[in-house]
Amino acid sequence: MRYRFTDNFWFGCAESATQTEGFCAAGGKTPSNWDHAFKISPHRFFNQTGPEETRGFWQNYREDIQLMRETGINSYRTSLSWARLMPDGYHLDEAAAARYRDIILCLKEAGIEPIITLMHFDLPFLMQQKGGWLSAQVIDAFVRYAETCFDQFGDLVSHWITFNEPIVPVEGGYLYDFHYPFKRDFASAARAAFNTQLAHARAVNLFHERRYAGKIGIVLNLTPSYPRSEHPADVYAAEVADLFFNKSFLEPSLNGRYPEKLIALLKHYDQLPVVSEDDLQIIAHARVDMLGVNYYHPRRVQARQTAINPASPFMPDWFFDAYEMPGRIMNTSRGWEIYPQGIYDILTDLRLNYGNIPVFISENGMGVENEERWIEAGQVNDAYRIDFIRQHLIAVHQAINEGSHCFGYHCWTFIDNWSWLNGYKNRYGLYRLDLKNMQRTPKASAQWYAALIKNNGLN
Ligand code: BGP
Questions:
Q1: Which of 27, 152, 157, 453 is disulfide-compatible with 72, CB 3.0–4.6 A?
Q2: Number of separate helices (H) and strands (E) present in the chain
Q3: 165 an active-site residue?
């Protein structure tokens, strides 16, 4: 075996509540911001397919977990839905808690380590109405929700994640208009980012102070910024992109403070939110036990080609333009570059510059359109996905060989799932979901992944 991993290495998959559960309106669940967004703007969703149309994990979890067991995965990350567990935002729904307990138990019985995320994009709409991540009240409520989850499931769950990709609802909701509440306003974005970090930090501190068993961390989507050239203007463009999109959450999460260069830049443009010393102390004290990294693609940038209109709304894009590198390899379905070296660069950066924190790759995968064109004898022959995972795993292996504390790899995703704004356009699963009858069929990648896990490595 040329690329062998350690015996306890996590080989698993990741998913999220909203993307798998369905039954949005069943039981006592109240709408999340996604249910509301679909209600008011269905045209924003691919083929007008909304969050109700998932594969029904809320009911089919036993069968799906059996498939995971057959594939041999030893760990699985999914999230809890706050709006389902605590429909009014504050009080537990006993039936929902019992069902989540059963799902977690079922995973454990199958020998699959549950990694539970508290917030994967789906803020309860009632909390959104209270101001969402702009409101201090919502931070308090989130901490109470986190505490309820620790109390309810702490005897079963040893690995918690506070937020999945906290920057995405900030970018989507307040900068680039693709998540509810569909705004473009940097001041709100900065406030929402800070409040999310504070909510994360308070949950982490509570977890540690109350001495709950297990570990807690955060999942960040890291997109390393690569400059077009070594010219100082291009290098500066990449540095600023990195400050906005990676270090804005990475530094406070791992080092307890915001990058000085980001603070100086925001101050210069009069965009620095006013925050209290007490809140900064809370963030400073919150140390995560582990980090999850979601990696899909790099960010290539160049110095801006046009002058900034100083009267236009302040945006991170004032400092760089996207760069289309000639010869880049693309996943054209998603419009994302395929660059396995990026995962190595991230792990190496974490090793050299962030105390080599224990880290796992919490999402990595490839979403492809019209996969039916690859069906042979009833099975999707997704050689491109096998190649994608393989190349990324080799890069992970190289980073580990050089000393990275990476302890796992989770593929996005196990069974094709509903993908926020893209519905079922791009399929990510190791299993194909037939939308006509909801049947799950292993793709070639599922068998390949099973063999990889069995051998604990690849040749
Ligand atoms: C990540 C999210 C996932 C998932 C994935 C694929 O950012 O954490 O929830 O959706 O990206 O992206 P998409 O569904 O937009 O293709």
A1: 453
A2: 16, 19
A3: yes
